[in-house]
Amino acid sequence: MVHPAVGNWHGTLLNALLNHDSNLETLPRAGIVHRIDKETSGLLMIAKTLQAHNSLTQQLQDREITREYLAITRGRMTAGGTVDEPIARHPTDRKRYAVKESGKFAVTHYRVERRFTRHTLVQVKLETGRTHQIRVHMAHIRYPLLGDQVYGGRFQMPADCSERLEKEKELRSFKRQALHAAKLGLQHPVTDEYCEWEQPLPEDMTRLLAALSDNEQD
Asked: What is the pLDDT of residue 4?
């Protein structure tokens, strides 16, 4: 959890940052430049000065920052593509978002990395950064993220799975959305040098892929 919210006032990243450096109180959102969904792993931008915060926020608004994710979807994709659909709050469930004509402009690019019997590992690149964007867009094209309880990505055991696959605890107990912020690229706020960071998959998604690999396909 990045920011405090109803039911989660403590134990957030914002709380931890302020505890680490009280000077961050002077910055908008304690220096946090953008959000990632609760239970999404990976990289997040945090500024230590107002100059850096303003620069990174502007780069984000101008769509100059590279943000790439790795995700495991339900369903076997045949090819990558682009989802260009506006996103707004769900009309009946305020905790969810949905594709809606009156929503905000949103574009998601995705590329197939590995295919399994009933799942796909995809690389996802954001052109915009709407709340729940990847989860909403993937669900919209009927490939919800594995483990996503909100957008329909509950795991189902493949009917033709191997004996080892059936025994894989990770496949039945993976409760969060299988989404990882893997790469960030930006212009340094002071030197203007291009900087890039990559974060390997966390252990839970690595185990998940190892379990699925019994059923990997070309």
From this structure: 41
Active site residue 160: no
Residues 199 and 155 in one domain: yes
DSSP SS3 for 24: helix
Domain match, 63 and 128 both: yes
CA distance 96 to 150: 7
Given the residues 37, 62, 84, 160, select the one marked as catalytic.
Answer: 37
Number of domains the chain contains: 2
Tell me, yes or no, whether 52 and 124 share the same domain: yes
pTM for this model (two decimals): 0.84
Domain of residue 2 covers: 1-32
User: What single-letter DSSP state applies at residue 164?
Assistant: H
Phi then psi for residue 148, to 5 deg, are -80, 100
Q: How confident is the model at residue 44 (pLDDT cuts 50, 70, 90)?
A: very high
